[in-house]
Amino acid sequence: MVIDRHRRARRAAMRRTTPDAGRRSGAADGAWRRGTVRGPHSRAVPSAHSRRAPSCTRAQGRIDRNRSLHTVRHRRGRSVHHLLGRRSTRAQSLRRQSAGLAVTTAMKRIMAVASVIVALSAQLSSGNQVAPSGVDVYFDADSQLVLGEPLIVRSTIRNRSAESVDINLGWNRKGAVRLRLRNPNGNEIDVPALASSGGVSRTRTVRIDAGSSYSQQYIIDEWISPEQIGTYTVTMTVIASVQGSRGPIVAAYPDNSFVVDVKPRDAATLQRRCGVLAIRATEESHASDRIDAAAALSYFKDPTAVSCIDTVLQKTTMFDSVLARGLMLIGTENARAVLEKMFMSDHDERHRIASDATRPLSTKWPVI
């Protein structure tokens, strides 16, 4: 009770000393309590409650300074952390970029492989197959021959694929052959391809089963005749289309080169070789072998071959047209005598062939 009475008395005394005590609002009352009371003609006067001891002031200053240092340190820490964060963000960005570049490169490779697969699938679905076709072509010839005999080349086409193929070798199965010849003088000659000369010819297409091969004879004298003594270099290739079971096959054949040495004329060698061909033309079991032998015999340009041709004509009429052309190429008196014998034959077809052969079909052939 006493304490309360003293408090009320102190408050009343304070009201009496304040000029606008009766008009104080809640804000002013708050100012009294805070220790600053503003009069109409005076500055803010600290109240008794606001007076502090020097030690308290110094302690409060230390607290304030500590708070300021803490704030600065906190801000510095935030700056360091922010800088480190920026560096880490930069590193992460670089890692993301490198990872993205690696992914992009991998995707490009995948897309390239996928495009190739799609292209192959499209070609297979459309019926086109891709090289290599598995079809090989080889050419072979004797390394030596005698002047006056033909240069004969054997070709072998081997099918290494797992399916049968049809190869188009051109007219008479020779039109697809390309030939280049280097003569003993060093001059290279690109020989034109053979064109159709009319008449009867073999079919263009040859079917070769999987794992099988096809052989054929080419007589270079049909394109060009080696008429000089010396070394010849012959380069042959085939430009042939290949058809598989699923459509055309793109095939590229390399050039085949071989060297042939042409020796001077030797009558004994010529007689022996044309005699072998005459036997093959009449006694071989396969018709294709007999045809090849008769064709080779017809390109002998030496008179020693006349007796061999006459021997074949006496045994068969199968090669009359081919051998009559050979006799015209030789053009000697003995060759004309054999042609006259053919012309006087009772066989109508042989008579017609001999009559046609004696006509001036070429300036190289003599006219009877």
Secondary structure layout:
Elements: H1 2-17, H2 26-34, E1 36-37, E2 45-46, H3 54-126, E3 135-141, E4 144-146, E5 152-159, E6 165-168, E7 177-182, E8 188-191, E9 205-208, E10 213-219, E11 230-238, E12 241-244, E13 247-249, E14 256-263, H4 267-283, H5 287-298, H6 305-315, H7 320-330, H8 333-343, H9 348-357
Parallel strand pairs: 4-14
Antiparallel strand pairs: 1-2, 3-5, 5-10, 6-9, 6-12, 7-8, 7-11, 11-14, 12-13
Using only CA atoms, what is the Rg? Answer: 57 Å
User: What do the pLDDT scores average to?
Assistant: 76
| Overall number of strands | 14
Structural class: alpha+beta
Uncertain regions: pLDDT < 50 for 5+ in a row?
Answer: 21-28, 30-52, 122-132, 361-368
User: What distance separates the N and C termini?
Assistant: 173 Å
Q: Widest sheet: strand order?
A: 4-14-11-7-8
Total helical segments: 9
Sum up the overall morphology in one term.
Answer: rod-shaped
Task: Estimate percent helicity.
Answer: 40-55%
Instruction: Report the order of strands and helices.
Output: HHEEHEEEEEEEEEEEEHHHHHH
The biggest sheet amounts to:
5 strands, mixed
The share of residues in extended strands comes to: 15-25%
